[in-house]
Amino acid sequence: MAHKILIKDVAKVYGTRQTVDALADVNLTIDDGEFVCIVGPSGCGKSTLLRMVANLHRPTAGSVEIVTERAQPWPTAMVFQDYGIFPWKTVEQNVAFGLRPRGVGRAETRQRVGRWLQQMGLTDFAKVYPASLSGGMRQRVSIARAMAVEPEVLLMDEPFAALDAQLRRVLQEELLAIWQKNARTVVFVTHSLDEAILLGDRVVVMSARPGRIIGEHHVPFPRPRTPDIRATAEFAALEQRIWEQLRSEVEQATGHTDPTSLGESATLEVAR
Asked: Which segments show compositional bias classed as Polar residues (predicted)?
């Protein structure tokens, strides 16, 4: 399979007089059509790395490359935790927002917007403004907007973190179905190991700041994949292996050096 994203020797330092090393010596290759989830402690640079792939941040050292034949604009779309949709635009206007700069004509815009409104269950809300929508519906708008531009790479920065547990599961399952139907390269940042294993082909583990990649775990479950895999012993075993690698990094980031100081269940919740 061809490589799609090449991250080589990346470092990121913020500040001048008082500096913060956010990332150090990050190397990662992501294949075309691969769904990669990135986990790590809070503040380890996961979102910074994602924004570098989106060309929103530049590395202090190293390089980030997307292999593409597409001319500008940059061949990515991003979904944020806080939705990132415009409150003064209707749902359909938000979904259509990125199409005109990419040279998509009016007829094609209407077709794409209609298709993704239907796909995300938003057709009846096309003329509604975001203030009238729930958090879950707003995130559906954000996903529809990202997918409508048909990006080569979809970047998702903890898109379900602000939602309650039940709605989070619903949207995880919807995203799983969408990706399996419209396979494209996805980089997904999350604190949830359960979410990472359910969605990803590979789970990349980052260290405490400065963020480095300390492990990669290939998810063995075949596709098409269903949420039922959560109930399997293999799922639980993989989650435990990832947590064992991540645990000391979470303790370092949170200031807890005694593995028993938080308790197993409480510490795992921090990682999520």
From this structure: 254-264
Count CB atoms within 10 A of the CB of residue 56: 13
Write the pLDDT tens digit of every residue in 249-266: 998 877 755 443 333 333
Q: Which one is predicted more confidently, 71 or 259? A: 71
Mean pLDDT, residues 68-72: 71
What local confidence, expressed as pLDDT, does residue 255 receive?
Answer: 75
Cβ distance 22 to 211 under 8 Å?
Answer: yes
Sheet bearing 3-14, strands edge to edge: 20-31, 3-14, 61-66
How far apart are the C-alpha atoms of 184 and 180, rounded to whole Å?
A: 9
Give me the mean pLDDT over the 88-102 stretch.
92
**Cα distance between residue 189 and residue 47, in whole Å:** 7
Domains, the chain, in order of start with CATH, read 3-75+151-271 (3.40.50.300)
Round to whole Å and give the CA distance between 208 and 180.
32
CB burial string 198-236: b at 16+ within 10 A, e below: bbbbbbbbbbbbbbbbebebebebeeebeeebeeeeebe
The answer to pTM > 0.85 is yes
